[in-house]
């Protein structure tokens, strides 16, 4: 059995979970509502303030989906109760970030600024403190969407291994390389 798949998802107070006939799970909470289509082979059972996922066989496909859908629903419950936050850091001389509404204006060392439109479901904020690297804060209820937007922002200028310049996640540990050894 999948270790993650067998663990039930507990439903906190103020959250309602419903399963439609088409196997679509809807999670409503104080911060919003999320929907996820579940594969027809996985059965979703709601009992005693818990959601349990069951699979029909031990096929590789069923085993893979068992843990996946449990994790997705667990992330949805966390999103509608607490919300999800992701923080990115801009490391490099002259790297800047500014936002007006959901439009980010990034200066990442290229000849032009990058204008990036963040989806309307997410809140974005930029923080620039003296003596510290500029930060981009993403906040919302959909963990998948936040992860996707954060990965896209990071891909605009990935951190390089020599000086660590680029866009990185806050708390990310980079693998550094030694540069060229000096001559004689």
Automatic annotation (TrEMBL):
Large ribosomal subunit protein uL6 alpha-beta domain mapped to chain residues: 11-83, 91-169
Pfam assignment, any one: Ribosomal_L6
InterPro entries named among the record's database cross-references: Ribosomal_uL6-like, Ribosomal_uL6-like_a/b-dom_sf, Ribosomal_uL6_a/b-dom, Ribosomal_uL6_bac-type, Ribosomal_uL6_CS
One term of GO molecular function: rRNA binding
Key words, A-Z: Ribonucleoprotein, Ribosomal protein, RNA-binding, rRNA-binding
An example Gene Ontology CC term for this record: cytosolic large ribosomal subunit
A biological process from GO: cytoplasmic translation
Function text: This protein binds to the 23S rRNA, and is important in its secondary structure. It is located near the subunit interface in the base of the L7/L12 stalk, and near the tRNA binding site of the peptidyltransferase center.
Assembly with partners or alone: Part of the 50S ribosomal subunit.
Stored NCBIfam families: L6_bact (TIGR03654)
Family membership: Belongs to the universal ribosomal protein uL6 family.
The protein's name in its UniProt record: Large ribosomal subunit protein uL6
Organism ancestry: Bacteria, Pseudomonadati, Bacteroidota, Chitinophagia, Chitinophagales
Gene encoding the protein: rplF
